[in-house]
Amino acid sequence: MAYTARELITRAFYLSQIVARDFQTVTDSQISDGLFLLNSLIDFKNTDTRLIPYYTEYTFNTVQGQEAYDIPNLIEVDTLTFNIGPVRYSMQEENRAAYFGQYRIDNVQSLPYQYRIERQLDGVQLFMYFVPSQIFVMKLWGKFSLMPVTLDQDMSLTYDTFYIEYLRYALARYICSDYGQTFPDGAQIELTRMEKKLLDVSPTDLTLQTRNYFGNAPGLTWSVINLSGGWLPYG
């Protein structure tokens, strides 16, 4: 069953108690305000990936000799791998200081083992080292920005019903703040409960990974020994 943004906005105004259900009608001006606030809310949700439960696979090809790649709308990376034929190899994420501040040979083209992402407008820039020596098929799992909606867009084609309900409560609080009204206590309790539940829908993988004792290089894997010759220029 379709659930449009217009319906969500209407129900959010009723939930906020700014418009009395069965006694008042949400006006065109309020609908317009609600759409603006809903899209503002959706955009701001991209700053807190914990409340976005959707992971997406993104595939792209490297370019030989190219270190940096623009990934539109990406806000969080969970895993990044590359393929050589049917065989998949893992990559290691580095922090900013280690990736950009560590000594290394910049022009080496080989198998990419490390990556670093930096936020930019409407997405991220992804850096990888070694610089790819050929075209590799990259597979990335991560979270992407929630997209703005139009008034009569069917939101049930994009979001689960539980997430639409969460957006309704969050929008109602947003509306109250914009209109200078107090959000009902009961609705605030329910919104807080929803936010806590959302954190458990698709939590971040916090599995601990052991590090190699011999410096910060990747461990001696099959791919390192057989494909790179085991040459690792790290201190």
What does this protein structure show overall?
This protein has 235 residues and is α+β, with helices and mostly antiparallel strands. The chain folds into 2 domains: 99 residues; 89 residues, no CATH class. The protein is 32% helix and 23% strand. The chain has 6 helices and 10 strands. The strands form 3 sheets. The chain has a 4-stranded antiparallel sheet, with no helix packed on it. It has a 4-stranded mixed sheet with strand order 2-8-7-5, with no helix packed on it. Strands 6-9 form a two-stranded parallel sheet. Helix 1 packs across helix 4 and helix 4 packs across helix 5. The longest helix has 19 residues. The C terminus is likely disordered.
Summarize the structure.
The protein is α+β, with helices and mostly antiparallel strands.
Topology:
Elements: H1 5-16, H2 28-45, E1 56-61, E2 68-72, E3 74-84, E4 87-90, E5 92-93, H3 96-101, E6 109-110, E7 114-120, E8 123-129, E9 131-132, E10 137-144, H4 161-179, H5 185-198, H6 222-227
Parallel strand pairs: 5-7, 6-9
Antiparallel strand pairs: 1-10, 2-8, 3-4, 3-10, 7-8
